Predict the structure.
Amino acid sequence: MSTSMHGRPGRGQPAPYLVLDQEDYRVLGPADFGGPGLVAIEVLGPYVDVQASGPLITVHDSTIDPHLGIGHHRHRYNERLFYITAGELDHDDSLNNIQGHMDEGDVGLFTEGQRGMVHSEWNNGDVPAQAYILVYTTDPIPEETKFTRFRSEDAPRYDEGEGVRTKELVGPRSELRVHGDLRLFTDSHLEEGGRLTARFANGEGGLLAIREGHVQVDGRELRQGATVLVPPAEGERTVTVEAIRPARVFRAVHGRGHGLIRRSDGRR
């Protein structure tokens, strides 16, 4: 990890981001989940140094083998966003008698609510399923437990500068409504030389996940798997990702939430 902040701050402001990579993550597998079939790379959460940023309390990059998954387990109070990047996934909430299905490109939104859920995540397909997962706190906590499927074809697409094509899953153009302070979540494809500028208003933070390709941020080269983490801070800031080779980047923007919580130093 880059333990110091990087970027171009305004006068008197901390620089805006940390760079996380494979050595900063933890791979969770069968021993952690109590059975075969699910591997999750934890980018942010209880098992790694960065335990929260804004409302985000867990970020996982998960792979579920065909005809396997994780059995029924309990969640309560938070909300979970599953972005299915390959394959398909089924949800069964036995506590509330709610079932749901997600295909590649869909978002599944799990609103745990005050009652909570006891659910399973299962890949009934013939190919591995992949899900990029954001877990964030909700305030106020919704009374109702829900599952919402947001289909890929319903997500707005638009050009975001030359050489950048963006799919908006959460944000002002999207019809998906979340219950936490997640303000934007997008999936962008960058042509070689394309530049994606993420803007953070006063008090906002977020992340940029390099999903494919080779990019640079402030002259620093980053490759697939790296995450640029932008903790909430005062002042308006921008972080620009430029594609050295064609790339794919996920972007999240959120509110102040819990600030930055790190196991290593307890800073917020």
